[in-house]
Amino acid sequence: MLRRPGDRVTLSRYEPGDALPTIHSPRPYLHPVHTLDGVPLTEAGPVDHRHHYGVSIAVPDVNGTSYWGGRTYVTDVGPTLLPNHGRQTSTSTTVDPKAPHVLHDTVTWTDQHGAPVLAERRRVGARLLDDGWVLEWRSTLHAEHGPLEFRSPATNGRPGAGYGGVFWRLPLTPDTRVLSADGEGEDAAHGSTSPWVAFVQVHRDARGEERTTTTLLTQPTPTRPWFLRAHEYPGACPALAWDTPLHVPAGGTVETGVVAALLDHALDADEAAALAARLR
């Protein structure tokens, strides 16, 4: 748990996810994630996609096992509910007493039969900005149990659905704008290799008061295509298997992650680009 300096406002919470339904592919995740002023920037178990959980690594197909949850896209068939849901389990979660803002976790990925598929080393850290804060998630996926094949609905025949990776699910709000180096809007950002994308959202609380936030997402190099949604729901991830399967040989590794700036005001495209350059 990370708290705002000087008080007890929770900025983020790391949940083990072990009690999630099997059909949701149980996994550790971050939720809630708040701005410094306490505005929530994640959603978990929303009505539109019950298997979305805050910030997590969610991949629809690794060696035939779903770590995304819900239905699997089957070639020439379409979305199909299969008994193929795997599980991610934290096996060693530690916080360095000299760096209490950094969490280290070792995560075992098992398939639907309980057999280990891969091992993950995960680092989740935070730091303050003058006008917000930064959340960093970096993961190394190790093929220590044999070769890995990462796939997505796009690789199985559904164009544009190349989702899978460190996925950030944002809340639905009355107004969401998407910015990227490739232009404004979902169509410009989705599938692009922009070094950053930003969600500028207007939130309305129970009293009808409006507050504006920016969630700026960057990714470590090499830059992967962004899977991004804004109209159906707001969310994004650097896609591990955008339009072709990702193969990792036995003993090999693949790295992924996001570095996010969370702000209680709107950024324009130039401001977002400048801040993103400082984060990467």
UniProtKB/TrEMBL annotation:
This is LacI family transcriptional regulator. Residues 1-26 are annotated as: Disordered. Pfam families: DUF6807 (PF14100). It comes from Isoptericola jiangsuensis. InterPro entries: DUF6807.
